[in-house]
Amino acid sequence: MKYVNYSLLTALVVLTAVYTGCLSGNALDAGDKLVEIKDYRGALEAYQNVVDTKPGTLDARKAQLAIGTLYFKHIKQPAKGVKAYETLIAQAPESNETAEARYELGMHHYRQGNYDEAQTQFDTIVNQFPHLNLSHKAQLMLAKSYEDGKKYEQAVEVFDNFAHRNPQSPRATQALVNKARIQRNYLNSDDEAKQTLQTMVKKYGKLEGAESDIEKAKQELTELNAQIPEPDNPEDTQIGRAIIRQQERRDRDRPRNSQQSPVLKPKVVMADSGFGVSAEEVMGSFGGGTTIAGDEQGTYYDAELMIAKFLYQDENYRDAGALYFDAIARAEAEKAKIKPHNYLSLSICYRKLGMHQKAAEVLKKAASKDSKVVDAVIATGQNQYTNEEYEKALETFQSIVGINRNKDVQIYWNIGKTYQKLGEYEKEKEAFERAVALNPEDTDALQSLAEVLHYRLKDSENAVIFDDLAKKQSNSFVALKTLGDVCYKYGEYSKAQIKYKAAARVAERLLKKTDNKVEKEILKHQHGYGLILAAITVFKQGRDADAQTMLDDITNQYPEHALLSYAKGEFALLKGDEEIAVEAFKKAIEKDPRSEIAVIALGDYYVSKGYNDEAIALWESFLEKDKYNAKIRRRLQPLKDNSE
Question: Which of 370, 445, 465, 600 is the most buried (most CB within 10 A)?
């Protein structure tokens, strides 16, 4: 009994100290102490008190973060934890506490197997909070979530990004080991794995702390019967040789007993570049403004750009990016003209480190100041393409997508041609499809799409459709509906609506001219189908009431149309009513078992939710009735490959 009383007294003393702390303004500490004694409800009240009484402050953000952590780690109510974190993100989107909240959300989604949601959180941290150490952890988790989500190419890219972010660190070799492992085990590309391992040995072979990874790389290269390269001498690089040459020239030309004049370094207030290293640190490693200098007319930013160029060519994108960022800011402060390729190089540096949002911002800002920037970048990409530097050309073209929509058709067409040279035909097709979606009348894009379908992907049926469209020789329901499908696929809903309505009008016009009963049934089906697709695009544009009115009209006109249930399923899915959508798709399949439309829609839904076995069973069952259906087969085979 004495023991119990003593315990109660101890708890009372702790609680008194805690609540005294609350009153004296140390409410955060009070909440932490309550967590220690497992009074989680009391801790919630203490943290919520801080949130309520100190809105918009650092303490309030920390308290909100603590609330989320409590719900996840102690109270075991993850739904409330998610809500707490999302509240913090909405209220203070740029705060460091929000970065932590996003990381915890990402880990929660990752553990649940919701890899897409996890990737969104981790990628946002990498792009919006690159100055935090947490962003490095987030980037590794981004790569892992891509790998576990079986998006192996993206995983390889992110591990590569991480290596570029840590160019003088053993962490780079660890990332490259993972990159090579995925290339070898999951992408079945020994050649690419060899190249990764050889680059690793060559570039990091003399890096202190990386000995174990380098030894593993050498062993794997031996297993692959590949050459093991000699490690680079860190000083024997383009930048190292350039500095030596410049120093020798200056020593030769400088009069005796004279001091070397540093390049004038004007003071400019700099924002954080996000590269994790300052331009001053990079310049300092080469002697700053003394060893590295411009000529008599040179400026400090000229010297920075010179060094940045060499670092860029040596694939040290982190340090090069820091210098490009600083040099451009200094030039802009002096209202000096900067060549467009410097903006492009800065953008690519960001992209190489995985910061694609910052990469886009750089070129968007440059283009807003000079409309010729996009044209200059396109020209650079075309020159690289002509010189057979296809990887560089691809990076160049991709860096300006979306900056000027009027140029995007041309850019996607160039991307498609570049993928053709690289032998990546599915990506080539996608690029041409995107060009067609942006401008369904562009004959170059239509013709190029027809060619990749016919010659490289052996899809003769669709190749003929796009070839006829390119030659202005077709205005059929199938051709117009196919164009609408391409527009819809890439989010060009207003263009898709136009094409679907046009397809419906073609069917309606032919329907009025025929007396053949079989033709009439086919044309009625096509007319209703075109109108249904148009209604779905209207819904996707956010015009729910208009879409519903259209669907009601179709129901009155064709009450027995086999695809009405499919349309109701699509509407339900867009509203988030997943159970209703699934039932509607199943009803559509039951009504017309020969139609692929609802089968594809239901299977795609299953895949989106991770129900791959259900999708495989559904599509295999359909192929028993229509074993040559190309659309189903194109979806099924990759799914089966990944499940093995």
Answer: 445
Residues of the chain with pLDDT under 70: 1-25, 234-270, 287-298, 643-644
- The DSSP line for 314-364 is TT-HHHHHHHHHHHHHHHHHTT----HHHHHHHHHHHHHTT-HHHHHHHHH
How many residues in the chain?
644
How far is Cα 260 from Cα 634, in angstroms, rounded to an integer? 67
Distance of CA 313 to the CA centre of its chain: 25
| Distance between CA atoms of residues 489 and 567, nearest Å | 17
Residue with tokens 């041309």: 410
> Please, what is the angle between helix 356-369 and helix 340-352, to 10°?
170
Alpha-carbon gap, residue 324 to 349, rounded angstroms = 9
HEC profile of 561-616: CCCHHHHHHHHHHHHCCHHHHHHHHHHHHHHCCCCCHHHHHHHHHHHHCCCHHHHH
Q: What is the pLDDT, as a whole number, of residue 506?
A: 97
Contact 397, 439 (CB under 8 A): no
Report pLDDT for 644: 61
State the sign of the Cα–Cα–Cα–Cα dihedral 553, 555, 561, 565: positive
Measure the CA–CA gap between 71 and 348, rounded to whole angstroms.
Answer: 41
Residue 29 DSSP class: H
Q: Residue 11: its pLDDT value, please?
A: 45
For the chain, report the end-to-end CA distance as a whole number of angstroms: 64
Whole-angstrom distance, CA of residue 435 vs CA of residue 182: 32
Angle at 191 between CA 186 and CA 197, to 5 degrees: 85
